[in-house]
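Hi R.,

As promised, here are both runs. First protein below:
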Amino acid sequence: MIGLSHYLILSVILFLIGMAGVMTRKNLLMLLFSTEIMLNAVNLGFVAISKFHHDLSGQMFSFFIIAIAASEVAVGLGLLIALYKRTGSLDLDSIAKMNG
């Protein structure tokens, strides 16, 4: 039987994978993917706790997080395309060396 603790452990593991990706990646696209993994881990935790307590508030809050993640992807991809057109690379070190 799969219980609440199994879902929360999976959520923590996914969050740690996303955090490791944010801390170690030099590519902007992989940084966005890692952020999405972290947001989905939080969503999994909210939905699992909401299901356990028979309350819909965690699931509704998860929908708001999904909407914020979608807007983050739209803005992030726009910036990513602009950066790639300007530098020809998605390396985060090239952003720090940009001269205006």
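And here is the second one, sequence first, then its structure tokens:
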Amino acid sequence: MNYYNEMVKIIDSLNGQKATLLLHSCCAPCSSSVIETLKDYFKITILYYNPNIEPDTEYEKRKEEQIRFIKELNADINFLDVPYENDEFKKISKGLENALEGGERCHKCYRLRLEKTALLAKEKNFTYFGTTLTVSPYKNSQVINEIGKILADQYHINYLYSDFKKHDGYKRSIELSKKYNLYRQNYCGCIYSKNNQKVKEKLSNS
């Protein structure tokens, strides 16, 4: 399924009326082009829920960068902060510490973050929930959207399908990151991805 086209269909169905959207964001750089794409069609609240990120200093650094970007963007974007909850990520990743990047551990991580978004969207009466995760060429948009659909059915709330990397979305996020001098991390977030990155760097330098 072309999830970018599915998103366009949803936008067209709004008939020019802005719907409320709780948008999970993994980081400021990924949110940049996504917000640019959606801000004319949705009243956006950014949810920064990323219990996978370690250490806690890295988590705080990325969160503050997200807040700074929203302020500097000078658009009508709200921000919703929630507790760190790193223990929740450790629970769902137990036994998968050595899983390949992009595999089952990552899929469970997508589910953890999207489910929190869906629950909060339902609780706070948002019309839609969605995520910036599909802007990354390193994330499986098919899996992310399938999880979103399951959660939408489970919690009876609309999910915004997406594949934000399409139509140069990822390229645009890099351009906006440079424009706003955004901090771009060199690993996804969890300690396991950080260790994988160290191994890759060591091999490339050997």
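A quick note on the second one: The chain has one domain: 3-205. Let me know what you think.

Best,
J.
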